[in-house]
Design goal:
alpha+beta; six-stranded antiparallel beta sheet; 9 helices; elongated
């Protein structure tokens, strides 16, 4: 049955409940608000707790370096010559690089050593000097020359010859300073077995020689030829044209290599060693102790060598090698004489052959290792 619009509206509208009293309505509203706030707070706390646990699970604590499976430490210590970066606000500066300490060696090293020095027959002054296991000639006594022989039994030993140059007193000052500097380092001769420390030491001495000359308003320098022994091990070094030889099984062999113009020409095949002995430029050297500080010397170094009983090592200035050929030196050294008589005969031979320069001859004979 079709109904009118008014009738339909009356039938579908809900019946309103009775209105509550005004006091009860306010209390219900307050309780509802409190309950809603409480639920909201609980939800917020739960979300924060879940998020914190999630982030904690994603982050791992920073681990300190520890041993690897192969037993090596992840954080390896730096070698002594590596660069170190230091924060000056939180740490003191890293110490300077120390020489490589040689391992203690129970050594029976015993040598018979001798040195002879003479100013020659032409020069009015003596520009040669030496370091004989910490002994060198004082400046005021250099012109007198010397003949010295001793038996040495120390586990570390160092011997050197220096040939000064520069004219007047310049060469004497240079060679004396270099020999004195080497003598002053006797307590650390073992450190000179290390190539890097040996090089840096020679550069320091070269700078000292140069600075002395600058203060005097002069130009001077010196050569050096040296050997350092510890136990059976020996290291050789030279700057300039002073030389080191070894007599082994009766055969004389040159160990050092001259820093000279003629040596360069020999290396290039322009000259033979025989031609170099008389070449006009034979006394022009390419390196020496006392070069300007901005030029770094590069010593010729021979390492990883062993001494043998009955080896005889010769260290000398060019006052010997210019006057006496190697074959004659070999013959004299092979004679049945002790080292003191041998150095005397070598110097006297150089003098008989002209003695045009100062001459220094040092022999080191190995008698026990």
């Amino acid at each position: 049955e079709k109904k009118t619009e008014t009738e339909t509206k009356v039938e579908t509208e809900p019946v309103d409940p009775p209105a509550p009293k005004s006091g009860s309505n306010i209390m219900m509203f307050i309780f509802g608000a409190i309950a809603a706030a409480a639920l909201c707070m609980i939800g917020i706390l739960l979300r924060l707790l879940f998020k914190g646990n999630s982030e904690k699970a994603d982050r791992q604590p920073v681990q300190q370096p520890g041993p690897r499976a192969d037993g090596q430490n992840i954080a390896q210590p730096m070698d002594y010559d590596e660069e170190r970066t230091v924060n000056p606000d939180t740490a003191s500066a890293a110490p300077a690089a120390a020489p490589v300490a040689a391992k203690p060696v129970k050594s029976k090293l015993t040598v018979n050593a001798a040195v002879a020095n003479h100013k020659g027959r032409v020069r009015g002054n003596n520009e040669d000097n030496f370091c004989f296991q910490g002994i060198y000639m004082e400046r005021s006594k250099m012109d007198n020359g010397i003949l010295l022989a001793e038996t040495k039994k120390e586990p570390v030993q160092m011997y050197a010859v220096c040939d000064g140059m520069g004219g007047a007193d310049c060469g004497e000052e240079a060679s004396c300073r270099a020999a004195g500097e080497l003598a002053a380092r006797k307590q650390n001769y073992a450190g000179l077995m290390d190539r890097n420390y040996l090089t840096s030491t020679l550069r320091e001495i070269s700078d000292a020689v140069y600075n002395d000359a600058v203060q005097r308003g002069q130009k001077s320098g010196t050569t050096v030829a040296m050997m350092v022994m510890q136990g059976k091990q020996v290291v050789f070094a030279n700057v300039g044209d002073s030389r080191v030889y070894r007599l082994r099984d009766g055969v004389l062999e040159q160990i050092s290599v001259d820093h000279s113009k003629v040596q360069r020409m020999i290396n290039m095949g322009v000259l033979t060693p025989e031609q170099a002995r008389t070449d006009p430029s034979r006394h022009v050297i390419t390196q020496y102790m006392g070069m300007p500080s901005d030029i770094r010397i590069s010593p010729y170094i021979v390492e990883n060598q062993e001494v043998r009983v009955n080896d005889i090592y010769l260290l000398c200035s060019d006052g010997l090698t210019d006057m006496v050929e190697d074959k004659q030196i070999e013959a004299i050294m092979n004679g049945k004489k002790n080292v003191k008589e041998t150095v005397r005969e070598l110097v006297e031979t150089a003098l008989r052959n002209g003695g045009k320069d100062n001459v220094t001859v040092m022999l080191v004979e190995i008698t026990r290792v």
